[in-house]
Structures are given as structure tokens and as C-alpha cells.
Amino acid sequence: MYRTYFFISVLFVSVLIAGIFLRGRLTNRDNYQQEFAERYRVYAVTVPTHLNFCGEKVPTSDFEVFERFDRELTINTYFQSQTILNIKRGSRYFPIIEPILKRNGIPDDFKYLCMVESGLSNATSPSNAVGFWQFIEETANRYGLKINEEVDERYDIAKSTEAACAYFKEAYSEFNNWTLTAASYNMGINGIRGALNKQKANSFYDLYLNSETSRYIMRLLAIKEIYEHPKTYGYYIPQFLRYPPVPVYSETITETIEDLVEYAQAHKITYKTFKTLNPWLRKNELKNRSGQTYVIYFPQEGAEHLVSDFYGYDEQNDSTVIQTDVQEPIILRSDSNAASTIMAASKVQDSLVYVEINHIVERNEDLNGIAKKYHTTVPKIMIWNNLEFTTVQKDKLLRILVRKDLLPLIKVQERRR
Predict the structure, then answer these.
(1) pLDDT at residue 120 greater than cutoff 70
(2) Which span out of 20-29, 313-322, 378-387 was modeled with the highest average pLDDT?
(3) 275 and 380: one domain?
(4) pLDDT digits over 6-31, tens only?
(5) Which neighbouring-strand residues pair with 297?
(6) Residues 286, 335: one domain?
(7) Do the beta carbons of residue 380 and residue 355 sit within 8 Å?
């Protein structure tokens, strides 16, 4: 009898403990699910009220157009990696593309077509379309780009942009409409013309097209919208994190170059830098037997260092902490102007590491010039002053940290009132 009671008691306690354990696990899981539901958020994007391409209104009152655009805006908003790269690359390559478009009378919005086509890179598609503007060989030859064993000018951003402009002019003369012109870059002039005639329509937005072309313009509009209003879609990419243009100069050649490696070294640059600036040269030699004229690009003196300074990765000469006998950097702060602060700093003991200077922006000053003056970098000034863009207004007060041993190199004057 005792054994029976003992067995029943053990069984009861075991069941009770198991129940408590299982209830605890269920409670934890329920709590987790509740916390997940309360904290996790994915927001749908809001389609802007007014959209246009090259000044031509997008009829978002048409529910099919609205939903097609909403799809591309959602996809590109949440395609964060490519969207960030688009924004970063735009700062480097749009200054090359925009003047060419303007000179040819092509609306500025066409620069975003480059993002749709290649993500602003010298990409090669499965159909062998090449470069920023994704020309196939036949079309490239038609619009004047040279392609042979040694040279492929589809990789030359300036020349391929000129060729794209020639296409846009031809298409616009056919359609007298920029949206149809852009759509034809994907479907072809004959394809768009045939669709308009067959469907008795005169607007891109009234056409029933294949999936690729119907999405093409909407993707273009979405990329434009995000690029022009990045914060609206959650993108915070300050100017100092965007790729700066590389200053270059050009030389025109008509002769043979037997060895491009030696040619690059003769210009005091590496072969890597040479190929980066001239990707249209496809071999390590240029026979040029027909005596063609080519334009070759070289970095301006100090260009590579200038770009490194822009990023703030060259720590050798800028305002960084030096090793001293103190554990933490000491900062001399002053409410006075730069000249007065530097004079005061000379009286401070040698253990000082940093001097904080208040710089008031003068007329025609920019961050590059200010950074050089104080032997620091543009990104550091932007970080210290919570700046998003490199443009600064006259009379703006900037906080600058300068390493004390660099102070003798800084020349500033009392500000004239």
C-alpha cells in the first residue's frame, strides 16, 4: 500500500512539474510572439501625389499606372544595397553625364535611365549589351562607337553618353514625347511605333506592353523619386559617404602604344589606375594601325590622394590623436575665433593633444579649402559639425579639431568685421 501511494505521489508531482515547465515554455513563446508583433515594423511606401518625367505628367489617377509605379517604388525602396550604390555612384558619374545631356538638348531626367540599365557601372548583360548605357554591338556601331579587338568605346562613359543622346534625338523626332522616347530605349523605335499604331494610342501610359517595357519606365520613375528624395524613403547618405568625382585631364593620341603598362608608368601612375580611367582599352597594347584618334584620361596631379582625403582614410597628416603620456586626448575649447584660439594654444602645456577651433565661413569658402587650411579632412569636419552636405553658407560657425603639433602650419587671420 505504501509503495502504491508513493508511486501515485511521484507521478502526480512529475505531471505537475511537467505542466509548469510546458506552461512556462508556452508563455515564453507567447511573450516572444507578442513582443515581435509589437516591435517589428515594415512600412509600405506612399506614392507621391505628383509625378513627372521630363515635365510630362504621370497619370497616377489611373489605378493600373498607380499600382505599377507602387510596385517599382516598393521594390527599389527595399532593394537597399543597389539603391545605396546608385546614390553613391551618382555623385561621381552624374557630373560627367549631365553636361553631355544638356549640351545635346536632352532632359536631365534621362540620367536615371543609366541607373536602370546598368546601375551606373560598366556592366555586361547576358545578351552582350555593354557599358553604362548597355549598347549591343550593332546599335553601338550605328551611333558611332568604335568596337574592335583593342577598343570598345561602349565602356567610355563620355562617348557612350554622346551615342545615347544621338539615339534619344532620333527617337524624339519620331514620337515628340520624352516618355515614349525613354520606353523605346528598351523596346526599340519600331516596337513602340508598332504598339501605338496597333492599339490606336498616343501615350505610353495607355499602351498594353510586354512586362519588361511596362515596368521599365516605372522603375525609372521610382529610381528618380528615391534619388531626389532619399530621406522620404529612409536613406541617409551624407555627401561625404558618396563617391567623389576623380579629377582627370585628357590627351589625344593617334600613334601606336606597344605596352600600356610602360605607358602608364611613364605618366607616373599605376596600370590599375590607368585601366580604371580608360576601361575602353581592352588589351595591354594599342596597335592603332589605322591611325584612329583616341582620347586617353589621366588623373590630375594628387587626384588619388585628394579622393583618399575626401574619405578621411589617410590618417598620416590630418588631425588625429598622437601618442603622449596622457590617457585621454585633451581638447582646448574656445568661444573666440580661430586666430585667437591658436594664439591661446601656444601657451598651453605640451601634453595638449587637440585644439578646438571655431571657424566662421567666409565668402567663397568651401569645405575642401577649409580642410586644407586646418590639415584635416572634409569627412571629419562634416562629422564634427553634423553636416549632411559639403556646401556651407557664409557666416556658418564650424567646429574644427586640430592636432596641436600642426598648429604652426596653420595660417589664419582675424576676421574682418
Answers:
(1) yes
(2) 378-387
(3) no
(4) 556 656 656 556 565 555 555 677 88
(5) 250
(6) no
(7) no
> What are the Cα distances from residue 120, in Å, to 9, 134, 138, 212, 332?
75, 10, 22, 19, 45
Sole residue written with cell 522603375: 219
Domain assignment present for 28: no
Per DSSP bridges, beta strands 331-332 and 248-253 are unpaired
- Report strand pairing: 354-360 vs 331-332: parallel
Q: Is residue 348 part of a domain?
A: yes
pTM attached to this predicted model: 0.73
Q: How confident is the model at residue 237 (pLDDT cuts 50, 70, 90)?
A: confident
Considering the domain architecture, whether residues 228 and 296 belong to the same structural domain is answered as no
Angle between the N-to-C axes of helices 80-103 and 63-77, in degrees from 0 to 180, rounded to the nearest 10: 110
Backbone angles phi, psi at 250, to 5 degrees: -125, 155
For residues 99 and 245, is the Cβ–Cβ distance under 8 A? no
Q: What b-and-e string marks burial along 20-36, b requiring 16 or more CB atoms within 10 Å of the CB?
A: eeeeeeeeeeeeeeeee
**Enclosing domain of residue 87:** 52-241
State the Cα–Cα distance between residues 413 and 339, nearest whole angstrom. Answer: 6
- Evaluate whether residue 8 is within a structural domain: no
144 alpha-carbon distance from chain centroid: 29
List all residues 6 or more positions away from 205 whose beta carbon is below 8 Å from its beta carbon: 58, 59, 62, 65, 179
d(CA 262, CA 391): 40
CATH number at residue 92: 1.10.530.10
Cα Rg, the chain, nearest whole Å: 31
* pLDDT (tens digit per residue) in 187-217: 999 999 999 999 999 999 999 999 999 999 9
Flag whether 5 is in a domain.
no
Q: Are 334 and 357 in contact (CB under 8 A)?
A: yes
Question: And the C-alpha cell for 125?
Answer: 548583360
CB 64 within 8 A of CB 219: no
Same-domain check for residues 297 and 330 = no
Report the candidate in 271, 268, 263 with the shortest Cα–Cα distance to residue 301: 268
| Strand-by-strand arrangement of the 354-360 sheet | 331-332, 354-360, 397-403
Q: What are phi and psi of 319, to 5 degrees?
A: -85, 85
Query: For 228-250, what is the mean pLDDT?
Result: 88
Same domain, 108 and 189: yes
The one-letter amino acid code at 364 reads N
User: Which residues lie closer than 8 Å to 319 by C-beta, 6 or more apart?
Assistant: 354, 374, 375, 376, 380, 400, 401, 402, 403, 406
